[in-house]
């Protein structure tokens, strides 16, 4: 559990760093727009409302450039709101203390709300000729942070990821409400309460905490991480009760069963001793008298149970012993003479038998040596090996098989292999040992399915791979099967890590490509000055090439998401006509360059579709692109 929580905490930390770095990149692009800087400079000098309207248009354009932007505010150098993306201009008040806005650095600022849902702002200074001219302030949608915080994969029923920042009093405050928040949950944690994992995280103590308490006062296992550049902290936690609950439950059950067994044993011992001891004592006395030679002694047990029957039989035995003793003495004398003669004959036979036994012992030593050689070879193999007979009972079980299954050889041999080695499919959990049955039935070697796992004695599961081969006698009859298997957990983890690396690399590539896209648009729009037709043509080629690169990165990202099982589809009500027109406009340059003609023939009254606009656009784009090419 500790190892898994450390890994989850590192993954969540990297995801938050990636999201916040992307936010900083986006606001940097907005703050660097030449057109916006020009209008701000003019407004600061003249306070002309025409420039304020132009700045408001730039704010609206900036908001539409990123889905994470909820409201864009433009402030002058006196920190007064000039324009907003909502179109209200200076009438809109900014729900943020402007003294917290930096005039030199880009910052992420968090404002607490009473419901535990915080407001997150991005701020960046507007610099003209190395002088401060105002600020861009963007209120962010924190959907991406919510996705990270509400990803409870691997954390059970009580686990969660909580995100904190240090408020103006130095206390820990939630950026997002916790998973099980209610009116009793303390949304502000005092900095003096170091028993809470959130406080440890903001102190920069990145560690595993086993004795701290959660926000609801329950003992937890927690892993803390700290973001120095943001002064944020995260806590990945699971309640101790969830980890130790099964252990406590089994201990209580075993204690109750043990107490009942002890009580029952004491009761039975007392009852049996009272009922059985007395008759046994009488029979014991009788046996001692007979041993002394008192053959006139008789036992007297007056009962109808087994002890009464045994007493009567004892008395009959004494009578029979007396009568038979005389006959025995007579026969002993006769047999003594016969034994003496046979003893001499047996002495000669003993010599012959000893010679035969010596020969057998020598052969046995040879067989033992061969068996030792086979055992040495079998146990030196690096893979798990076991041999079964035609009835699927285990005959041989090497040490690697013991380690992988958790069962010792003495327990495994003689039992059905399915009782010891439970092969199953990793995805469905259903039995997956048909490859062994097919070997016995067909007599042909079989490969293990690629997604096979085994359940060990302690309940843990490991991934395995390899094969099974038939075992035949000298007449070619199938008498069993040899199964070889090995632990491939590490190999499958490496494959998963490769897929995750492709996902991370694709995600990181999107940020610089978005920057190239922004700068190309700015150049084409003339934000950096006038350009001639040839330069504009080249810039268009750069822009379209960058768009194709973005599509390639998105395709790589989708492939990795499919492999990881995290591919998302977000259907919305959209117009098919608008999507087709956008694709046609995007392909216009390619169609014209090939001397082709692309015609759109869709009735205007076609109803909206419920579909993911990005994925539908990719489908139509592929169809049109293939038509142009082929």
Q: Over all CA atoms, what is the radius of gyration?
A: 43 Å
**How would a textbook summarize the main sheet?**
7 strands, antiparallel
Shape by Cα distribution? elongated
Count of distinct strands = 20
* SS summary, helix count: 15
Q: In whole angstroms, how far apart are the ends? A: 55 Å
Low-confidence stretches: none
Structural class: alpha+beta
Q: Averaged pLDDT, please?
A: 82
Strand content: 15-25%
Proportion of residues in helical segments? 40-55%
Polypeptide structure, described:
Strands 12, 13, 14, 15, 16, 17 and 18 form a seven-stranded antiparallel sheet that branches. Strands 8-7-6-11-10-9 form a six-stranded antiparallel sheet. Strands 2-1-5-4-3 form a five-stranded antiparallel sheet. Helix 1 (2-31) runs antiparallel to helix 4 (143-149), helix 6 (240-291) packs across helix 7 and helix 12 packs antiparallel against helix 13. It is built from 15 helices and 20 strands. With 630 residues, it is of the alpha+beta class. It starts with a helix and ends with a helix. The mean pLDDT is 82.
């Amino acid at each position: 559990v500790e190892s898994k929580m450390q890994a989850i905490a590192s993954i969540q930390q990297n995801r938050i760093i990636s999201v916040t770095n992307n936010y900083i990149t986006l606001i940097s692009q907005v703050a660097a727009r030449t057109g916006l800087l020009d209008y701000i400079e003019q407004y600061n000098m003249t306070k002309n409302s025409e420039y304020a309207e132009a700045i408001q248009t730039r704010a609206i354009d900036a908001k539409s450039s990123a889905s994470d932007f909820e409201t864009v505010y433009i402030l002058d150098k006196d920190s007064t709101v000039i324009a907003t993306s909502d179109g209200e201009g200076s009438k809109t008040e900014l729900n943020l203390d402007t003294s917290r806005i930096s005039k030199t650095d880009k910052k992420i600022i968090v404002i607490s709300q009473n419901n535990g849902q915080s407001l997150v702002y991005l701020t960046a200074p507007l610099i003209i000729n190395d002088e401060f001219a105002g600020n861009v302030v963007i209120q962010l949608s924190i959907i991406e942070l919510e996705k990270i915080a509400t990803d409870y994969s691997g954390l059970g029923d009580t686990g969660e990821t909580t995100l904190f920042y240090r408020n103006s009093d130095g206390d820990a405050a939630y950026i997002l409400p916790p998973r099980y928040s209610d009116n009793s949950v303390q949304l502000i944690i005092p900095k003096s309460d170091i028993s809470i994992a959130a406080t440890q995280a903001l102190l920069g103590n990145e560690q595993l905490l086993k004795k701290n308490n959660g926000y609801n006062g329950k003992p937890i296992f927690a892993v803390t991480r700290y973001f120095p550049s943001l002064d944020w902290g995260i806590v990945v936690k699971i309640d101790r009760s969830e980890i130790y609950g099964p252990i406590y439950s089994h201990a209580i059950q075993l204690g109750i069963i043990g107490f009942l067994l002890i009580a029952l044993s004491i009761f039975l011992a007392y009852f049996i001793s009272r009922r059985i001891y007395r008759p046994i004592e009488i029979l014991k006395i009788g046996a001692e008298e007979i041993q002394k030679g008192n053959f006139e002694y008789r036992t007297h047990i007056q009962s109808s149970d087994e002890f009464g029957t045994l007493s009567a039989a004892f008395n009959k035995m004494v009578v029979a012993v007396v009568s038979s003793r005389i006959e025995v003495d007579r026969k002993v004398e006769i047999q003594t003479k016969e034994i003496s003669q046979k003893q001499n004959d047996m002495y000669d036979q003993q010599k012959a038998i000893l010679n035969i036994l010596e020969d057998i012992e020598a052969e046995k030593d040879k067989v033992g040596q061969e068996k030792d050689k086979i055992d040495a070879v079998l146990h030196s193999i690096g893979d798990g090996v076991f041999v079964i007979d035609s009835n699927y009972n285990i005959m041989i079980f090497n040490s690697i098989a013991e380690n992988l299954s958790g069962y010792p050889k003495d327990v495994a041999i003689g039992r059905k292999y399915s009782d010891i080695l439970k092969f199953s499919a990793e995805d469905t959990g259903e039995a997956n040992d048909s490859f062994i049955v097919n070997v016995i039935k067909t007599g042909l070697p079989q490969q293990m399915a690629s997604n096979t796992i085994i359940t060990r004695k302690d309940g843990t599961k490991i991934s395995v791979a390899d094969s099974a081969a038939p075992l035949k006698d000298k007449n070619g009859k199938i008498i069993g099967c040899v199964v070889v298997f090995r632990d491939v957990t590490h190999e499958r983890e490496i494959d998963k890590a490769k897929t995750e690396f492709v996902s991370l690399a694709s995600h990181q590539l999107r940020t610089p490509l978005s920057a190239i896209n922004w700068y190309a648009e700015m150049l084409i729009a003339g934000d950096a000055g006038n350009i001639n037709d040839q330069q504009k043509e080249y810039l268009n080629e750069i822009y379209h090439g960058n768009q194709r690169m973005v599509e390639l990165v998105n395709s790589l990202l989708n492939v990795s998401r499919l492999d990881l099982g995290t591919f998302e589809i977000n259907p919305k009500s959209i117009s098919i006509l608008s999507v087709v027109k956008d694709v046609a406009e995007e392909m216009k340059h390619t169609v014209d360059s090939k001397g082709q003609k692309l015609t759109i023939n869709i009735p205007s009254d076609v109803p909206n579709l419920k579909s993911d606009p990005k994925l539908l656009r990719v489908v139509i784009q592929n169809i049109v692109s293939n038509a142009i090419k082929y």
